[in-house]
Structures are given as structure tokens and as C-alpha cells.
Design a protein that fits this description.
62% helix; mainly alpha; globular
């Protein structure tokens, strides 16, 4: 069991990997959005959720994190912004 409010270097490494993996999976690249994900991960950790699968499931179900994912998928990709008149 994790002592409430504490994280040793092993925990920090593990939590960082969870955040990086989740953000990569959902293409979350904005720093402020990544910080929100990290805050949610820390909140779960502080409540004793230490299994990476459980953290991922909780993030998938989190409404605030879900809004971040929807925001990312609405952004146009660079190839979507090309002027069709310039093609061919």
C-alpha cells in the first residue's frame, strides 16, 4: 500500500510512463492537456490506485480527460489544410 501523499522515485517513473503512454495513445500533445492528465493520474495514485491498467481505465472513463481526447481528434491534420487548388 502506498503511504498517502508520497511517491518514491520508482513511483514517479511508473506514473510518468503511464502519463506518456496515455498521451501518446490519444495524441495529446499540448502541455496544458498533458498536465491535466498528469494531475488526474496523481489524484488516482494518491487514492491508492497503483495498477497501470486500472489507471488507464479510470482515465478512459474520466469526463474531463475525454474532452481532451475529443479536442485532439477535432484538430485538422497538416495534410487536411492543404489548398485543393494547389494539387495536381
Amino acid at each position: 500500500m502506498v503511504k498517502e501523499g508520497t511517491a518514491d522515485p520508482t513511483h514517479v517513473t511508473f506514473l510518468t510512463k503511464v502519463v506518456i503512454d496515455f498521451c501518446a495513445k490519444h495524441q495529446i500533445v499540448r502541455i496544458d492537456h498533458r498536465e491535466q492528465v498528469a494531475g488526474r493520474v496523481m489524484s488516482l495514485f494518491e487514492r491508492g490506485v497503483i495498477d497501470p491498467d486500472q489507471i488507464s481505465i479510470a482515465l478512459e472513463e474520466d469526463r474531463a480527460v475525454s474532452r481532451l481526447r475529443r479536442f485532439v481528434y477535432r484538430l485538422p491534420r497538416s495534410d487536411d489544410r492543404q489548398d485543393p487548388k494547389l494539387e495536381g
